Amino acid sequence: MALTRRGRIVVVLVILGVILGTPALGGVVYLHKVGYLGESDPGATIEVVIPEGMGMAQIGKLLERKGVIKSFSGWRIATYFDDDSRTIQAGRYELPTGLTAGDALQALLGGPLLDFVMVTFPEGAWLEDFARVLGSETHITAKEFRRVAVPGSLDSDIFSSDIPSVEGLLFPSTYQIVEDDTAETVFERLTSEFERQLAKVDLDDIGTLGYSPYEVVIVASMIEAEAAVDADRGKIARVIYNRLAEGIALGIDATVLYALGEHKSELTVSDLAVDSPYNTREVAGLPPTPIGAPGLESLRAAAAPEPGDWLYYVLADCEGHHAFSESYDQFLTDKAAYNRLTCG
């Protein structure tokens, strides 16, 4: 007849008493010593990978070696008392060090973490970049993501489904993509995170700017492409709004790159003449859609530009700061000063 858990404990204590030559109290002390009895003192969390086919003894030795439990002996006792120990699954676990054998066993019985990869989408990334990164670093193909990443799939309280593109409405950050994710769940996470971040932006004053939330995102996407330092973002926003108010073409080269569909460091004369509504050197007004994924600081700058009469800006140093000016003559002077620099 199979022993109950209580019966097993009695047997273990009797055996320990015989082996150690001590009464039951000595057995209790021993159980504390090997980490079976007592309380856990959780320390740093570490990763433990249990391969397929690893037996109970091997798991115990692995946990002891990693510092999750005090000793293999405590593990053997814990698994002897718990029939469910035979159901531990192979996989990856995150366990704290300093557990009792019983607590470690219960943590493992909770099941392994789902396999995942950490994927980073940088600020300014294009929609196509999101698809490419997913296709190269996860099980979700670029084609699947492109199919889903359309306005009709957008569930939004801010943006309507008649917008021309979801470009710029996916928040750039680092995400954990698990094996159960689909193109749909990832798209929903990216767009929901964008709206969660946008909720941190004070949009109350954008009506006075004369622009919709979607148009503010378009402005933010250009700021993201142009600004290298946070201090410049609000001023770049003001230049954009001032030029729009004056009916002056924005002349932002990042929109030309977007029109070309290429990430390149230099533009040729023919590039600058590309026939596209995104060519803000040739076409006045905002481009039809955002030209990338703006981060939170660019969104804030677009919603609350710094006050000023600037119409021009140009790089001022090798660290990415810009010089801002109200006149074209001053702009040319600032540009000449930058051209004299030798940035590595």
Keywords:
single chain; 344 residues; mainly alpha; 15 helices; 6 strands
* Oligomer category: single chain
Number of strands: 6
Mean pLDDT, nearest integer?
A: 88
Q: Give the percentage of residues in beta strands.
A: 5-15%
Find the structural class using helix and strand composition: mainly alpha
Helix coverage percent of residues? Answer: 40-55%
Which sheet architecture does the biggest sheet show?
Answer: 2 strands, antiparallel
The parts where pLDDT drops under 50 for at least 5 residues are 1-7
Give a description of the structure.
The N terminus is likely disordered. The chain is elongated and about 85 Å long. The longest helix is centred in the last third of the chain and has 17 residues. The chain contains 15 helices and 6 strands. The chain has 344 residues and is mainly alpha-helical.
